[in-house]
## 1
Amino acid sequence: MVEIMNNYCIIMAGGIGSRFWPLSKDNYPKQFLDILGTGKSFIRATYERFSPVVPDENFLVVTNKAYKALVLEHLPMLREDQVLCEPARRNTAPCIAYAAYHIQSRCKDANIVVTPSDALVLDNREFERIIRLGFDFLSHNTNALMTIGIKPSRPETGYGYIQVPKNGTQEAVRKVDMFKEKPNYETAVKFVEEGNYFWNSGIFIWTLDGIMNAIETYLPDIKNVFDKGIYNFGTPEEQDFINDHFTDCPNISIDYGVMEKSPNTYTIPADFGWSDIGTWGSLYTHVSKDEQGNAVRGKVVTVDNHNCVINIEDGTEAVVQGLDDYLVAYRDKSLLVCRLHDEQQIKVWIEGLK
Amino acid sequence: MVEIMNNYCIIMAGGIGSRFWPLSKDNYPKQFLDILGTGKSFIRATYERFSPVVPDENFLVVTNKAYKALVLEHLPMLREDQVLCEPARRNTAPCIAYAAYHIQSRCKDANIVVTPSDALVLDNREFERIIRLGFDFLSHNTNALMTIGIKPSRPETGYGYIQVPKNGTQEAVRKVDMFKEKPNYETAVKFVEEGNYFWNSGIFIWTLDGIMNAIETYLPDIKNVFDKGIYNFGTPEEQDFINDHFTDCPNISIDYGVMEKSPNTYTIPADFGWSDIGTWGSLYTHVSKDEQGNAVRGKVVTVDNHNCVINIEDGTEAVVQGLDDYLVAYRDKSLLVCRLHDEQQIKVWIEGLK
C-alpha cells in the first residue's frame, strides 16, 4: 500500500444544478445542499468520504469563483489556495487539467482521485476500500486511467455505462472495452442483463504522470493553454493566469476527450450504494417515506397524498392535500409544484420566471 | 333626504378568518387582505363604499385590540377613539350593542348602518343608492330594522336567506316574513326559483332608537351589561369598562337575537354585485382567469393547469404544473396546496401545524 501523503483529491464543484430548483439555484447549487436531510451537504460528505486516504492539504476543489466562499464555509479545513477558481465553465477536461497542473507544481509523484461533489454514497467503508484498491493498482500501472464502475441495480437511462470483457470477472480492476453514452431504455435493460456493464460514476483514479501524458496525447489544445503558464502554477500568479487564459480551453468532457480514446482505461467494479441524485425522482428512491409513500421533509401536514416528494425549508410550514406522484418544493422565496414524472422540464419552466 | 351628519357606520372587523389560510391568519385576518388584487384591502374598500353617506368622524370600527394598529394603518383618516376594541369575541349582537352605546353618547338622533368589513361589492354607485334609500326610509319608520337583501344569482348554501311576501314586489323596502338559516341545496334551489328570497348580507340599517329599543326588548342581558357603564361611554373610561365587562355578554348573533324576533324587520332587495368571499371558491368566481380557467395572482409560471386558484405573495415566485381544480397559496412562510373542493377542511388541517 502506498503512503497517503502523495494522494490528491480533486473535487469538481462548479455545477449550477437547476434540476433541483428551487432548492438549488445559481447562487446555491446542489453540492452545497443537504437535500437528503443527513445534516451534511453533498460536498461535505464527499470530503469526508475521501479524508481517510487523502491528507487535508492535498484536497483541491475546482469551482466557480462565485462559490469560493461557500466551499470554504462547507470545508473550513481547506486553505484558500486549495480552492481553484474557474472563471467560466468549460466541462470536466479543462477543470481536471487545471488541477493537474496545479498538483504538478507541488508533487511530481502524485496519485490523484477526481470526484464529483454532489453524489451520494451509502457505504463509506466499502468506498474507502475501493479507492485504496485504485491507488494500489497505480503503483504497478503508472499510466492506468481508472474509473469507478458502479454495479447497475436497474436499467437507468440517465447514466453513461462502461463495458468490460465478459471473461475475467474475478479481477478487481478490469480493462475497459468501451465507454457507452446514456442508453435508451431497451439498451439499458440489455446492459443490466448481460452483466458486463457498469455505471460511470465520474470518479477517476490515475497518477499525475498518467493524466498529464493523456492530456498531451489527446488534448493538445488544452496542454497548449496551460503550458503557457507552467511557471505560474503554485505561485501567487496562478489565479491571474487562469483568469486570463482558462477560457481559451475547448469545452470538452474528460470522458469524451480522454477516456474514450486511451487504450489505458480500467474500471473498478464497485457496489457501495451510489447515486448521483441527479433528479428528484432519484432522491425519492433514497429517502424514507411515510405510509402513503410520501418523502416529506420540513413542517408539513400531509393529507391524502401518495408517492409525493414534499420538501419545505426550515421556518416555513405547509399543508399539502390530495396529490399523487407530485413534487412540492419550497426554498428561498421560490415554490415548485409539479408532477414528479415531468421534473425533467423544470429547467424549461424556470426560464419563464426570468 | 336626511342630512348625512347624523349617519353613522359601524364596521365589524373582529373576524379571524382561517378559511383563507395561509393568506389570512390570526395575526392578519381577511379584512386586511387584498385577496382580489384590486390594490385595496376589504376593510379599506368597505370604508370607501360608505364614505359618500357617512362623515369620516362617524365611522366606528369594532375589532379585537390585537388589530387596532392594523385598522388605523388601513384607515388612517380615523382617530384612535373610532376603533372600538373588544377584549374577546362575542358574536355580532354584543359588538353592535357596544357601538350603539358609544354612538348614544355622541348623538341621540343617529342613523346607523352596520356592515361586515370583508365583503365584496362590484357596483359602488348602486350600493350608495341602496344605503341612501335605507336612511331615507328611517325618517318615516324610526323603529324599522332593515337588512340589505341580495338578489340570489345561484342556489348558494353558504348564506342565510330572507323571505318576503310574494305580493308587493314593486316596493323598494319590503317587510320581512322570515329569516332562514343556511339551506341545503334542494331548498336553496327552491328559494331561488320562488323569487321572494334574498341573501342576508349582514348589512343592517336602523336608527339608534330602533336598535336600542330592540336590545332592551330582546337582549336584556346585553342591555344590563352595558347599562352598568352607561356614563363611561364616550369618555376615557370607556375602554376600561369594556375590558372589565364586555365578556359578561352572551355570545349571540344580531340575526338570532333581534332580527328573527322583532316584528319591525324590513329588507331592501339589492343587486349591486355582492359576495362575502367567504371561501376560495367564491373568490374564484370573482377574479379574471387565464385561458385554462386559472385565477393566478403573483409571479407564477403555470404549465398545464386548469381551473386552479394560485395566489403567491409578492417577492416570491412559483412554478406550478399539472394541477386541475387545485388551490395553491403561499404567504408569510406558509404554503397550502389542496383540492379546491376540499377547502372547507382547511381549518381542520391547519390544526395539525400547531
Note: The interface with chain B takes residues 21, 299, 301, 303, 312, 315-323, 326, 328, 330, 333-339, 342, 345-346, 349-350, 352-353 of chain A (CB under 8 Å).
## 2
Amino acid sequence: MNNKIEFDLILKNGMVINVFTEEIIKTDIGIKNGIIIRTGNLDGKNIINCEGRYLSPGLIDAHLHIESSMIAPKQFADFISLRGTTTIIADPHEIVNVSGENGLNYMLEETEDCSCNVFFNLPSCVPATKFENNGCNFSSEKMKKFIHNKRILGLGEVMDYVSVITNEEEMMKKINLFSNKIIDGHAPRITGDDLQSYRLNGIITDHECETYQEALEKLRMGFYILIREGTAAHNLKELLKPILEDKIPLEQLCFCTDDKHIDDIDKNDHIIHNVRMAIQLGLNPIKSIKLASINTARLYNLKKLGAVSVGYQADILVLDNLEELNIQFVLHKGKVIIENNIPKKNKDIINSINIKNIDDYDIKLKLSETETTVIKLVENQLTTKKELSKVILKNNIFIPDNIHQKVIVIERHNKTGNIGIGIIKNFGLEKGAIASSVSHDSHNIIIVGTNDDDIIMALKEIKLMGGGYAVSHNKKIICKQQLELSGLMTDTDRRTLSKNLNNMIDICHNMGVKKCFDPFITLSFLALPVIPEIRITDTGLFDVTNFKFI
Amino acid sequence: MNNKIEFDLILKNGMVINVFTEEIIKTDIGIKNGIIIRTGNLDGKNIINCEGRYLSPGLIDAHLHIESSMIAPKQFADFISLRGTTTIIADPHEIVNVSGENGLNYMLEETEDCSCNVFFNLPSCVPATKFENNGCNFSSEKMKKFIHNKRILGLGEVMDYVSVITNEEEMMKKINLFSNKIIDGHAPRITGDDLQSYRLNGIITDHECETYQEALEKLRMGFYILIREGTAAHNLKELLKPILEDKIPLEQLCFCTDDKHIDDIDKNDHIIHNVRMAIQLGLNPIKSIKLASINTARLYNLKKLGAVSVGYQADILVLDNLEELNIQFVLHKGKVIIENNIPKKNKDIINSINIKNIDDYDIKLKLSETETTVIKLVENQLTTKKELSKVILKNNIFIPDNIHQKVIVIERHNKTGNIGIGIIKNFGLEKGAIASSVSHDSHNIIIVGTNDDDIIMALKEIKLMGGGYAVSHNKKIICKQQLELSGLMTDTDRRTLSKNLNNMIDICHNMGVKKCFDPFITLSFLALPVIPEIRITDTGLFDVTNFKFI
C-alpha cells in the first residue's frame, strides 16, 4: 500500500545495529520528516552511500549538567551532537540555583531547536540543603507550571536524602508531583535501611556509585545505575568490570557524564567515550551501545528514541568500525549535523554577582589552636576527608603553607555579606589564588589562596567579569575566563573557551596544584554539602556525615 | 532512622527471587499497608515462616479477555489470583461490543477491589470492522472520559490494521489519544511494508505470532511479543524454543493467555502455566518468571509491580521449588488470598438478547451449484481456510452431511433481523445443533447444526436464557449454560460452571465434534472478520484476505 514513498533521505547499504535483537542487519534506511519510516531495499533521489559503515542509534546521555561545560546550552548541544550524543537528559540544577525560573526558562528556550534532543528533569534540591544561601528556592509550587512540558521528564537527582527518608513535607510534595514520571536519585554511599527508605519513595536511578558493592546493592533494589564517566568522576571501569564478570543483567544500566568540561569533551568526546570504554572492557559493542541508547530511552519513556528502526527519530551515527567507533557523520532528525555559528541572544541571567564592596570583607581566619579541622582532598575523587591537622598560626591568625591553603566562600546572590573561611589540605597550591563563581550547588564565589592580597585580587576580578574564573599572583590577574551567564556559562566561541581553560589549568598546575586535580572542578565541589565528608559554605565548615555545621 | 517499624506481616527466611539481578537471596520481607517496606533480618509480631520456600513476584498476564472465562470479573480475579496471577491487563473488548460504556463501567467497578490488580486497555476496534452489526460504536470521543482513569493503561489490541496503515481518521484519533501510553497490537501474519506502517503508528505489542519468523521480524522492529498460551491458541513452544536457541534478548518478551476458559484454568492453572512451559524448554526459572513479572510491569509502566523488593506492592507467590513451581500460597497487597463467596450485584448488562420472533427467521440456504465456498476449519488453529467444496443439495437447498454443516449468525443487539447463513467443513458434528451468544467480536448468536429443527430449538433456548450456550438434539435441549451478563459471562459459582462446561464439551464431542476443537471456542471465533481466511457474520460470508463480503 506504500509502494511509492518519496523519502527525504535514504541511507543505502549500511550495516544497521539492531538494539532489539542485538544483530547487525544490512538494510537501507528511509527517512521522511525526521523519522525512519522504512527499512529494506529502498530507492529515491537523495541517497547517502553507507556501504561498509555501521549505523548506530544516536547516543543518549542519561544525566548531565549542561552548565558544567561552561558554554551556552545551544552551543553545547551542537558541540556534543557532532560527537555522537543526540539526546541528553539534563538537570538544570546549577542555573536554577543562581537564576531560578528565569534560568530554567532560558535553558528550555535555548534548547528548543538545536541539533540534539534536550530533555530536562526539574532540579529537586534548590537550595541543596536548608543551610544554603543561594539565588532561588525552587519549590514544589513553582514546579507545577513546568510538569506538563513534554521536555520535562521527571524530578532531577534527589540529593537531600535525609529529607526523603524522614518524609519531609516539601520533599514529599515534589516526589508526589512526579510519581508517574521518573525520579532521579543521588545516593553516594547510602546503604542498608537508609537506602531502602530512599527507594521506598520511588527514586529509581543513581549515578553516584563508586564501588561494585554499592552498585550491586542498588541494582538488587531495582535502581537503575547510570554509570558515570565525567571529568572528575570516573566510575565505569570500577563498576562495569565486576558486573560483566558476575553476569549481572545489563537492563538496569545506562551511561552518563554528569559533569564534563568542554575541553575534556574536545579531547575525549562525550558519552561515546563510555561506550568505547565498555568495549575495551570486553562488552560486546552492540550491548555497549544499548547502555547509551535503548536502555536509557526505555527508562525515561522516550518512545521514539534509542533505535535505528521504523517509527524512531532519525538520530543516527555512521561509524567506520565497532572497535574504536570512529564517527563519520551524525544525523539528527534525518539531517546531517554540521557545525553552526550560534547567534547570541539577550538574557535575563547576566549580572548575577551581587556582593558587598570587597573592602567590607574580612578574610582573616582566627584560630585558638594549631590543631584544627581541615578539608582534606582525596586524589581522583570528589569526596573529601575531615581531618585534624597542625597548621601555622601567627598571632592566632592562620598562615597558609605548602600543605594548607585558605579557602573562602562568599555569598553572591542576595548581598548578605556572608563569608565562610576554612582550610584545605592536599590541593598543592604554592602561590597566588584561584577564584570561581562556579561552586555547587549554590554557586557562591569560592576562592583558594596562599595569601590574602591575591585572594582579594581574584575576588575583584570575578565581580568585574560578572562571574567566571580568575587566577591571581603577586597582586596581578594572570589569567581569567568570563562566565557571564548566571556566572556559570559563556557565549564565547567554544574553541576559544576550551583553549583558554586548558591554558588556565596549566597555569594552576604550574602554581603547584596537583596534577590529579582539575583546579576549577575541584573548587566547584568544595562547597557542596551533600558529598561526604566535609565541605565549606558561605556560613562555615559543614560536616556532611553528621549533617551539621562544625 | 527506622529502627522500630511495626510490620503488618513478615515473611521470614524465604529465598527471594530477585528479578533485577537474577539472584536468589535469602532474606526476610517486611510488609506494611500492602507494600514491601523492608528486607533484611526483621522481627515483628505477625510472622509466616518461609524457610525452604521460594518467593516470586506475583505474576502478570500481559493480555487477556476476562469475558472468555465466562465468569463474572470479580470472581475471575479471585480465581486466577489463587493460581498465581496477581495482575492482569484486560481488554474488555467483548463486553463493550455488546453493552458499550455500561459494560466497561461494570468491568471497572466490579474489579475495583478484588484479589488481583485489574488494569484495562480500552478496546480499539468496537465494532471490529465497519461491516459489523454489534451493540456499540466505541468511538475516540467516548474513550476520552476514560483515559485519565489510573487503571486504564492504554489502547487495546488494534485489530483493524487496514485502518492503521491507511491512516483512517477515527483510528488515528484513537491512536493519538494514547500516544503517551501503551498501544497494543494484533497483527497476525502482517509482514513487510504493512507491518512497518503498523509499527510506524506507535503500536508496540503483538500477541498473535504463530511462527518464530513472524516473531523475529516483529522483535527486530521493536515490538514486544506477548507469548500466548490460551485455550485455543498455543504459541509458546513454537516461539520460545528458537528464541532461546538463537540467544535473542528476552527483554521484549512477556507472557499472556488472551483467551482461556475457566475449566482450562482449573486444570492447567493460568499464566504460571506459561512460566512452567518455559522452564521445561530449558529457560532458567528466574528468567522465565521475569517474562510474567518485571518485563510486563516495565512495558506497561506499572512501577510498583513485578518484583519482590522494597517499594513494591506485596504481591508474592510462595513456591515450594523452582521446577514445578507449586504454589503454597499467594499474597496480594500483603494479605494471603483465600477463596471468597462473591456477592451478586445488580447489573446494567442483562437482557442483551434483542432479536425478532424466532419464527420470523428463515434459515434455509439456497444454492444454485453443488460446488460452493465453505469455511474449512484448521485443526488446533483459530485460522480457517476458504475452500470450494461439493455439498449435497435437494431442490437447490443445502442439506448438511457428516462433512458439511450449516452455520448461521443472527444479529442480537438491535433486532435488525439480519441473518447470515453458511457452511462449515471439518468440524465433525454428526447430529443436533450447538448455539452460542459468544461470538467474537460482535457477539451475535452463532449456531452450527445438522438440521433446521435443532438449530431453531437451540436459538429459542439462547433467547430464553438471555444469552448462553445451548445444545439441542431431536428437538430437545440436551444441555445448556446460561450466560446472563451481556450474554458472555455468568454469576454462577465457577465450579458449577466449570463442571457444566466440561460436561457440555463432552456431549458435543460425543455428537461428533472433533476432539481437537473446543466446540464453543471454535464457534466463538467463526464470526470474527479479522482472522484469516474466511468468516461468517450476520450479513454473510466474509473473505478476510481481501477484506470484503463474498
Note: The longest strand of chain A covers residues 9-18.
